[in-house]
UniProtKB/TrEMBL annotation:
It comes from Couchioplanes caeruleus subsp. caeruleus. This is Pyrroline-5-carboxylate reductase. Belongs to the pyrroline-5-carboxylate reductase family. It is an enzyme of class 1 (oxidoreductase). Catalyzes the reduction of 1-pyrroline-5-carboxylate (PCA) to L-proline. GO terms for cellular component: cytoplasm.
Length: 268
C-alpha cells in the first residue's frame, strides 16, 4: 500500500493525517515530519504514526504531501529537492505556489499534483480541488483522490483555476465563520442570550447548507422562498444590499485570489 509522508504537520498536515487514519489508512503507512521534535512526539502519541526527519520521509514514502506554509516551501525543497528519487509523487497543499515552483526544485520528471483542501476535512466535509502539474498522469491524480475523497468531496480543476479555488473554498470556511460570528452579535443586539443566538444561527447555517446541497434548487429560489412580500426578510436584505455585502464579497474574493498570486510571485 502507498506510504504517504506529510511534510509539515501544522493545522492542515494534522487534519490530512487524522482524516486518512479515520478512513482506515494504516498508521504504519503514514509518516510525518515536523520542525519541532516535541510536535512530532505529540503526533506520535496521538495517532501512533512515526515522526521522522525529512530525509527519511523522502527515502521511505511513495507520496510526499507538502503541507508547510508557502513561504517555507523554498527552504524545504532546498533541503530535500535534489535527493527525491525518480517516481516519488509530490502533492502540494500550498496556497498560491504553482507546480512549476516545485518542478524547478526537483529532479526532472518528478510528478507534481497541486491540491487545495479546506478545514472541514476535520469532519470529513472538505472541498478539495486537485490539479495535475508537470509529469502528473491520471494515475497520480487518482492517488491524490484516494487520499482526499475520504475527507469530503473532490473535484479536478485545471491548475489555472487553483488561485480562484483557494479564494473560494480554501479560505471559504473563514467567511462563513465570520458571518456566523456577526449574526450571533446581531442576536445579542436584539436582546437574545449569547448561547441562544449561537444555537439559533448555527442550526440555521446547517439547515441552509443541507438545503443548498440536497434540494437541487438555485440559491436565489431558496432565498425567495424565505422572503415574504412586505415581510421581515426583505427589510434585512435591503440593508445588506445598502451596505454593499454582495460587492464586498466580490472584492474580498478578488483580494484573496490576488494574495495567492502575490505569494507565488514572492516565492519565485
Ligand atoms: N489553514 C488552512 O485552512 C489551509 C491551508 N492550506 C495550506 O496548507 C499549508 C499549511 O497551512 P497551515 O497548516 O495552516 O500552516 P501551519 O503553520 O499550521 O503548518 C505548517 C507546519 O509546517 C512546519 N514546517 C515548516 N517548515 C518545515 C520543514 N522544513 N520541515 C518540516 N516541517 C516544517 C511548521 O513547523 C508548521 O507546523 C500552507 O501551505 C497553506 O497555504 C491549504 C488549505 C487550507
Ligand atoms: O489563508 C491561507 O493562506 C490558507 C490558504 C487557504 C486557507 N488558508
Amino acid at each position: 500500500m502507498t506510504v504517504v509522508a506529510v511534510l509539515g504537520a501544522g493545522k492542515i498536515g494534522e487534519l490530512v493525517l487524522s482524516g486518512l487514519l479515520r478512513a482506515g489508512w494504516p498508521a504504519d503507512k503514514l509518516l510525518v515530519t515536523t520542525r519541532r521534535s516535541t510536535r512530532g512526539e505529540e503526533l506520535h502519541e496521538r495517532y501512533g504514526i512515526r515522526a521522522v526527519d525529512n530525509a527519511t520521509a523522502v527515502a521511505e514514502a511513495d507520496v510526499l504531501a507538502i503541507a508547510v506554509k508557502p513561504q517555507d516551501a523554498g527552504a524545504l525543497l532546498a533541503e530535500i529537492g535534489a535527493t527525491v528519487p525518480a517516481g516519488k509523487l509530490i502533492v502540494s497543499l500550498c496556497a498560491g505556489l504553482p507546480t512549476s515552483f516545485f518542478a524547478a526544485r526537483l529532479p526532472e520528471g518528478t510528478p507534481v499534483v497541486r491540491v487545495m483542501t479546506n478545514t472541514p476535512a476535520l469532519v470529513d466535509e472538505a472541498m478539495t480541488a486537485i490539479s495535475a502539474g508537470p509529469h502528473a498522469t491520471g494515475d497520480h491524480l487518482a492517488v491524490a483522490e484516494e487520499m482526499f475523497k475520504p475527507l469530503g468531496a473532490t473535484i479536478r480543476v485545471p491548475e489555472s483555476q487553483q488561485d480562484a479555488v483557494t479564494a473560494l473554498s480554501g479560505s471559504g470556511p473563514a467567511y462563513f465563520y465570520l458571518l456566523v460570528e456577526a449574526m450571533v452579535d446581531a442576536g445579542i443586539l436584539l436582546g437574545l442570550p449569547r448561547q441562544v443566538a449561537h444555537d439559533l444561527i448555527v442550526q440555521t447555517a446547517i439547515g441552509s447548507a443541507v438545503m443548498l446541497r440536497d434540494s437541487g434548487e438555485h440559491p436565489v429560489k431558496l432565498r425567495e422562498a424565505v422572503t415574504s412580500p412586505a415581510g421581515t426578510t426583505i427589510s434585512a436584505i435591503r440593508e445588506l444590499e445598502n451596505h454593499g455585502v454582495r460587492a464586498a464579497l466580490l472584492a474580498a474574493l478578488e483580494a484573496a485570489r490576488d494574495r495567492a498570486r502575490e505569494i507565488a510571485a514572492q516565492s519565485a
